[in-house]
Design goal:
The chain is α/β, with parallel strands linked by helices and about 160 residues long. It has 6 helices and 6 strands. The structure holds magnesium ion.
């Protein structure tokens, strides 16, 4: 059975994403989750390595957008530090703002990779729109109780898929 929660690609961290391969497959833009994908919940800003990597993506002409379900203050502070357009309270997995992000970058969902650490928000949202979905391992184990609750179900799905 084709699982709507399962990503196309699994990586350990965003730095392990094979840009060349994605590019060959028509990916022109990325929508990133922030928390536990690009930084821990406790980090208000991206670290130097992450900031450089995002800059490199843009230098290679990839579209870059941040879509986070977290609040405006957190997301704006993070995104403004690297000059990336963003949507806070993005309501993932709903498609409304993800679709809007594609439009803003001038790409279709099929030309977009959605990168995140959670199956039921990031991956489901991306797959819904036909994006290439990439699951990263959460950077930190420090998460709120609702995320921890969802992790139990994620584990079941991931276990059954391998
Ligand atoms: Mg996250």
């Amino acid at each position: 059975m084709k699982n709507i929660f399962l990503p196309e690609i699994f990586v350990d961290t965003v730095f392990d994403i094979d840009l060349e391969k994605l590019s060959q497959n028509g990916v022109k833009a990325f929508i990133f989750d922030i928390d536990n994908t690009l930084a821990t919940y406790a980090m208000p800003l991206p670290d130097e390595k992450t900031a450089q990597w995002i800059k490199m993506l843009r230098d290679k002409d990839f579209g870059v957008f941040f879509a986070s379900n977290n609040d405006e203050e957190r997301v704006k502070t993070f995104a403004d530090s690297v000059g990336v357009p963003y949507k806070a309270k993005a309501l993932k997995p709903l498609g409304k703002y993800l679709r809007r992000a594609c439009k803003l970058m001038g790409v279709t969902p099929h030309e977009t990779a959605l990168v995140g650490d959670q199956l039921f928000t990031d991956i489901w949202g991306g797959k819904w729109l036909g994006m290439c979905t990439i699951l990263v391992n959460p950077i930190s184990e420090v998460e709120d109780s609702f995320v921890k609750f969802k992790r139990r179900f994620e584990k079941m799905i991931l276990k059954n898929s391998r």
